[in-house]
Amino acid sequence: MNETIKESTKTLPYHKQNYPYGSQRMTVYAKKGMVATSQPLAAQAGLDILKKGGNAIDAAIATAACLTVVEPTSNGIGGDAFALVWTKGKLHGLNASGPAPKGISIEEVKKAGHEKMPKYGWVPVTVPGAPAAWAELSSRFGKLSFEEVLKPAISYAEDGYPLTPILGKYWKRAYEIFKKELKGKEFNAWFETFAPDGRAPEVGELWRSPGHAETLKEIAKTNAESFYRGALAQKMGEASADHGGFLTSDDLAGFYPEWVDPIKVNYRGYDVWEIPPNGQGIVALMALNTLKGFDFTEKESAETYHKQIEAIKLAFVDAKKYVTDPTRMKVSVEGLLSEKYAEERRSLIGVNAIQPEPGRPPRGGTVYLATADEGGNMVSFIQSNYMGFGSGIVVPETGISLQNRGHDFSLDPDHDNALEPGKRTYHTIIPGFLTKEDEAVGPFGVMGGYMQPQGHVQVIMNAIDFHLNPQSTLDAPRWQWIENKKVMVERTVPAHIADELARRGHEVQVAMDSGNFGRGQIIWRDPVTGVLAGGTEARTDGSIAAW
């Protein structure tokens, strides 16, 4: 390994401004606390909780709940969530992804006229996990009351807030799609909630959701019990029954989030952590495990891009074949992350682009936020409805916008991720965390469907291999593998690199819209001073609130 890379393992570049990449943002520094997320009002809500005496966990819950109100284009009360929590020198993982209803099956879905899982309607709706995640995090690690941390979200739902530019863009885009595609009566409540004047609200226009506020009050008052085993669960079950859905109040009553042991690989002296399957964080880890066998001296080179793309697509085809509910996986996580398997996959990477195929390992629309406090607690948290607004289903008068995670199930009974009653599907949302020598470096994440593990790989390499500070790490030009040999690159990727990738057999498309390349946040903690360094995306309305 060359000396440049050896040097990079000593410390992360918290204070260097190596490559601004045209962004006007700078890394934010603070000592007492920090909240980084995709929406300024939500970030400020988390900071307010820190200033009231809450810890990073309280701030994460407040920010997450607030995001269901102020960024409904990406998440909602009816979505799933995952968290990585660093506290008292240990990293904890929480999987709050809900299973398919017990009454659903491949046969029933096909009987309803579907040859594959639909995107919209009640069929792809799975049990929402987000409210349970908030309550569980509060109960185990919070300092303030659950009702206190949900107050900012309730206030914004009741009083309203003005739409920000990126939010307004995606809201209008979703409205135009839904107007064309959502025709049944089951979708009426979505339009009543999110297009009350017969259109999407404009940027700067106030939007409020009284039903959302009442639901959040009920969740706060009952510690989320009403959502799963009370009045709110009853409303969801009745709405589902009214429109032939599979979700029942019994499905909700049986759900509890699961504490899990995070998984990791060591990359150049740092431990990179992810939530284990059914999440796709293992994709990032497999790719990094493959890439650590190469030397990288320059970020903006065709050779670097080529090897990154080849590694990620090999990891993805494995994950899409094998990753599903961990209780039903046919291969082991240990096998997928083994050094031997990484060597096998690495040997496939040559000069030219390959057509990726799954290997044979040993058998066995999303919002992201990061928080940190002065006491050393740090949280990496992500939640989503999937594909923007999700299923297009809103439970009438509640503001509960339901996810469509079931869309990722296969209706092929022989597929590893085949639909089964009570099964959790392959899940795209993933929080990340970085440590070194058993000490926290900090949380990181990149939201955006299948871009997420690709973003994680690029973020980690930007920070560790190429010495970029948090803001430069996020601002750097990105690529995204789509399928087969097809790759999209941002306009900021140098033209000579795109040309060289095309000569190597990659089918390169230059994207005019950077919205497809993820929207991430980072908070690193300096190991000596405890100073926090944060970055957030120029690709979103992102903001860092700090003190």
Structure, described:
The chain is of the alpha+beta class and 547 residues long. It has a domain of 358 residues. Helices cover 36% and strands 19% of the residues. The protein is built from 19 helices and 21 strands. α3 packs antiparallel against α5. 58% of the residues are buried. The N terminus is likely disordered.
* Biggest sheet descriptor: 7 strands, antiparallel
Strand content: 15-25%
Determine the fraction of residues in helical runs and give it as a percent range. 25-40%
Question: What is the total tally of β strands?
Answer: 21
Average pLDDT over all residues:
93
Number of helices: 19
Biggest sheet strand order reads 1-20-19-15-14-9-8
Round the Cα radius of gyration to an integer and report it: 22 Å
End-to-end separation: 40 Å
Class computed from helices, strands and strand pairing: alpha+beta
Q: Low-confidence parts lasting 5 or more residues at pLDDT below 50?
A: 1-10
Overview features:
547 residues; alpha+beta; 19 helices; disordered N terminus
